[in-house]
């Protein structure tokens, strides 16, 4: 048992179910880190104890803040909204893999094959730990994250991955988004000269000619993407887990903030009920 503000609860790793629960979501709330073109999260207390004897809050936010899942309709017109995606796509077993990366490095299909090609199964959830969840703040994280490139998306399609999550800013390399020389960008034009120096003289338009190609490949093949994974990610890296990450039942939603949870059943005694009548 754990005591929280004077009230006892069963713990994440000490409970009657015999399961271990690991939070893989970053915090959401006042001044949570934001992608460069989003407005700040706004939270207002509409009712509070001194006024009403209850606490009720109003939130103004994009759903693409903190740890969240994209609906295919977020990028690919005519594809499913978040409420239209069947529920099995928000639950399942899979892997948490370590693929350490530095500033602006690519996460490739070769990286994925090396990290988990021997263990991946069709229908798996795949969570990628690059180490960048440790840098999740408003500073360098969004501009300088490593990122998935098309070969990684093609590998996931080939392997039958159901959902991919990662501790980076988007389902694409940052320079393949509006942060770089893409549609609606560049939001951070000073990165052009910095990239040229970093890359040894390359033009960022040559290295990133397409706008969000990974989003497009994944979503057109029914693979959902979870961005900004964090929390206790290191604790489950290198393990096969069960994951749950259900979004709101939001009509025509383009994505949703989620509580991504990894579960481990070491005793193998817990079972989902069979629906017997009572």
TrEMBL record:
Its EC number is 3.5.1.9. It is an enzyme of class 3 (hydrolase). GO terms for biological process: L-tryptophan catabolic process to kynurenine. This is Kynurenine formamidase. One of its GO terms (molecular function) is arylformamidase activity. Keywords: Hydrolase.
